[in-house]
Amino acid sequence: MKENTLDPEYTVGEIIDRLSAFDRDAICRMAINPLFAMEHTAGSIVSAVDPQGRTIVYLADGGEQLGPLPKSVAVELTWHEPVEAPSRRRRSATGNQ
Predict the structure, then answer these.
(1) Closest CA to 74 of 28, 19, 35
(2) Could you read off the pLDDT of 28-45 as tens digits, one per residue?
(3) Which of 7, 18, 60, 64 is geometrically suited to a Cys-Cys bond with 41, CB 3.0 to 4.6 A?
(4) Other C-beta atoms within 10 Å of 23: how many?
């Protein structure tokens, strides 16, 4: 199984192996666009043969954009850096420091 998230070429077997670690009743969604990370419903699954004669399986976007991808998911996908709020000095009630 590949651990390199930069390699986009997974076999169907590798995807099945990775998915088998999750609850079979869990909802499947797609994470789209690392720079403006959104979540979408998953759609059709189809196959075709590429010019090299390899069978390629495609998982389509289901057509429904659900909203922004949760920050924790974008961080886990390494699309975004974990961000901590900057430390702040406590201000006095009068505004003088």
Answers:
(1) 35
(2) 999 998 889 999 999 999
(3) 64
(4) 6
